[in-house]
Amino acid sequence: MSYHIISIDESPCKLSVSRGQLLARSEHGTQQIPLEDVASIIISSLQCSMSNHFLISAARARISVIICDSYTPAALLLPADRATDTALLRHLADMPAQLRRRLWEKTLTAKCLNQHKLASGWLPEHPSLEAFEQLARSNKENREGDCARRFWQLFAEAAGEATFRRGREAGGCNPLFNYAYAILLSCILRNLYALGIDPAFGICHSSRAHAAPLAYDLMEPFRPAFDANVMRWIRMQKEQGDDTWRQAESCITRDYRRHILGTLLAEVGEEEDTIPLRLAIERSIRSFRAAVLASQTTPYQAWKLTNIKWAGS
Q1: Is 176 exposed, middle or buried (0-12, 13-18, 19+ CB in 10 A)?
Q2: If DSSP codes are grouped into helix, strand and coil, which group holds residue 180?
Q3: What Gene Ontology molecular-function terms does this entry list (predicted)?
Q4: CA dihedral (306, 64, 17, 8) positive or negative
Q5: Residue 148 parent element (H or E)
Q6: Residue 202 neighbours by CB under 8 Å, 6+ apart
Q7: For a tag on the chain, would you pick the N or C end, based on fewer CB atoms within 10 A?
């Protein structure tokens, strides 16, 4: 079973395949792993070279190769037999507005409840949690924005960062979240393409040039899982007296990249079992696909955060 997520950030680095082994050569030596154990390869290095044999071997092994630009996915390479499912594409393009709205409501409810669950792990006695949960379960028109404001306020308090404000272009620890969400987006896109789903047709986010609105939609419930690991990283750095995470130009270290990639392998609750978050993402997207084909919301299981071992740490 393939399960390893390989991150290539050494510069320079050369990737190749020999006798069923993935080889990564850099100035620090050669590392190898059986190709059959690899689920995906994320390339962040700007000086990474790949042979045609490597690309063909990855395709035969059904491995996705994600190429990043400034930690954001720029290209996704998949086997040719994983092209878009045309029947599914028609269902997405012709989806009734009511079904689209109901699928989004299910997605949004999961996200808001996950934010509340995580905040409860950070500050279990906080007086605002009850109102936060009521808001998350409501049908209030602007509940996404209202829940987000409550969530980030509680994050700032729990992290001991009173001046923190969440913003993609803001400083402080915001780049940590930007990178974490880029990894999440990569995983969502990989699963969408792997299941033949064209991400150009969203259920809430607007379609625009060079965008993947459906990926932005379906990643929403999973953001809190990455938020939890960002919080864990900040607390670890504070315990060690390391302040580099505050410096936007240098906070995305190799150790941080490895830490965040580990989020996809974290054990999370799934019914009466625990599974890696990566698999929970795949299952959720499979259920979304089934809902689209059935033209009803019932099959769609928007992921709920029931257990993350380090959520409250």
Answers
A1: buried
A2: helix
A3: DNA binding; DNA endonuclease activity; hydrolase activity; metal ion binding
A4: negative
A5: helix 143-159
A6: 213, 214, 216, 217
A7: N
Give the pTM: 0.80
144 annotated as ligand-binding: yes
**Any idea which residue has 């390989």 for tokens?**
6
Which neighbouring-strand residues pair with 15? 24, 50
| 220 assigned to a ligand binding site | yes
Residue 201: φ, ψ to 5°: -105, 100
- What count of residues does the chain have? 313
SS3 3: coil
- Inter-axis angle of helices 254-261 and 223-239, nearest 10: 140
E-assigned strand segments in the chain:
4-8, 13-18, 21-26, 29-34, 38-43, 48-50, 64-69, 72-77, 267-270, 273-276
The tokens of 36 are what? 């059959």
Q: State the number of CA atoms in the 13 A half-sphere of 310 facing the CB.
A: 17
Tell me the sheet residues that pair with 4: 38
Compute the distance between CA of residue 175 and CA of residue 244 in angstroms, rounded to an integer. Answer: 12
Tens digits of residue pLDDT in 44-101: 888 999 999 999 999 998 888 888 876 666 787 877 765 556 788 889 989 999 999 9
Token readout for 163 is 């001046």
31/27 Cα distance (integer angstroms): 11
Q: Map residue 32 onto helix, strand or coil.
A: strand
**Helix, strand, coil shares, percent, the chain, to 5:** 50, 15, 35
